[in-house]
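During the reporting period the student researcher (J.K.) took over the structure-prediction task from the postdoctoral fellow and processed the backlog of single-chain submissions. One of the processed entries is reproduced below for the supervisory committee.
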Amino acid sequence: GRSRRAACRRRIIQAHGKRRAEPPLRGGGARRLCGALATQLEAVWRNVLDELGDVTADVAGNFAALEMAGTDQLVVTLKSSYDRDLCRRPERKRRLEQAVLDSTGKRIRLDFRAAESSTASEAAPAVAPPTRRQRMKQLEQDPLIRSAINLFDAEIVDVKPHKQKPR
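J.K. obtained the following structure tokens:
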């Protein structure tokens, strides 16, 4: 309701660096504006990850939510505490922050958090699907693929998931 719209409005004002108090938006305006900001933020984050294109990007791409906290801090809520811990490592965090700076031209601090989950899911962690880089490594090990690489002097540049037909 009203408090959710107000919180969204505060995030929007913070993200755009406005300091003065502004009247809250009425009706669906706040929802549309908040949704547009979230979509833009996600697009920028995905662009940053695409530019990195490594394991760090694969881990950071497993996010549940993005939120600006002030004008210079991005809170990235990751789906697991394992991903959060990996992204908090100084060398990975530094690379991600540098990629954000290169992409946006603005120095933004990153804060990684884990999404709240039930204790049942923590007790039996699900096996994460292999990342793009892992799938490429697996394909390179296949004898048929290896012979095709050697025959055509080729390299694997991308891997797309195979869509299975319904039975």
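The committee noted the following: The mean pLDDT is 75.
J.K. will present the remaining backlog at the next meeting.
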